[in-house]
Design a protein that fits this description.
Order of helices and strands: HHHHHHHHH
Strand content: under 5%
Low-confidence stretches: 127-135
Number of helices: 9
Mean pLDDT: 86
Structural class: mainly alpha
Radius of gyration: 17 Å
Shape: elongated
Largest sheet: none
């Protein structure tokens, strides 16, 4: 006799794709962090590198670090970064982000969660280059 698989388990085993990443993030994190035009597609190989290939594994990672990510996201900026972001992103965006206490879009939150879970091994080249430039 075959034991039926629950709908929850079937969903958890579903392979990740860009649309599924974004919809999962919308269920876990505030809408204010859903901005920008970053590609969720580019996150798939980064996640797969650490064995995160299913909806369940991804949701487990993000929910495990949710509170910590929200604390990191709401940390105040120093004066240098505020000036830099005003020049790059505009006064209106920075004023809104300061007022509502957020900085990171969904893809950045995913990358930070990977760094929290897997350490320096998860730092992407782009983020490392930004650190070298002092941004």
């Amino acid at each position: 006799m075959e034991i039926p698989i629950s709908a929850r388990r079937l969903r958890a085993a579903e392979s990740l794709n860009a649309a599924l990443l974004q919809s999962s993030m919308r269920k876990i994190f505030p809408k204010k962090n859903d901005y920008g035009e970053a590609s969720f597609e580019e996150l798939l190989p980064e996640l797969a590198r650490f064995g995160i290939k299913t909806r369940g594994r991804f949701a487990a990672l993000m929910t495990h670090y949710r509170k910590r990510l929200m604390r990191i996201d709401s940390e105040p900026l120093d004066a240098w970064h505020e000036r830099y972001y005003r020049a790059e992103l505009g006064d209106q965006f920075v004023s809104d982000a300061l007022r509502r206490q957020y900085w990171f879009a969904y893809p950045a939150l995913v990358r930070i969660a990977l760094e929290l879970e897997f350490g320096d091994e998860a730092v992407t080249c782009d983020r490392f280059e930004l650190l070298l430039k002092g941004t």
